[in-house]
Amino acid sequence: MVKKNIGIEAKQPENTCEDSKCPWHGQLSLRGRVFTGTVVSNGGKNTVIVRWHYNYFISKYERYERRNTSVSAYNPDCINAKKGDIVKIAECRPISKTKSFAVIEKVGVKQ
Fold it and tell me: CA 86 to CA 39: how far, in whole Å?
């Protein structure tokens, strides 16, 4: 297996695929932001919804509130992330109307 450099620190998947939109085995280039989150849905074909939480400071009350962000990401066949997996996603060109991220690594499984 030839190691491809995608420009981001991530572990290459053991499986291979023939997908042209795969960042590891296809022609999809990555640029921009990288996030780590939990897969909350994998209902669509080659699509996962990834959510991560962050704290937002409200200056009026001098307190933090917990917020979350959800994005749709492309899920290549070689990674095949399922609901509950912790994944790393990276920004890419728009793949569809709502997908501008691709899953690049499966980090672990949520306890």
Answer: 6
pLDDT digit string, tens, across residues 34-89: 999 999 999 888 999 999 999 999 999 999 999 999 999 999 988 889 999 999 99
Range of the domain at 105: 30-109
Closest CA to 34 of 11, 9, 15, 54: 9
Cite the beta strand spans of the chain per DSSP E: 30-41, 47-58, 63-74, 85-92, 99-109
Cα four-point dihedral sign 49, 20, 1, 100: negative
pTM above 0.90, yes or no: no
Number of domains in the chain: 1
Looking up residue 102, the CATH number of its domain turns out to be: 2.40.50.1000
**Is residue 59 one of the residues assigned to a domain?**
yes
Residue with tokens 């994944």, as numbered in its chain: 87
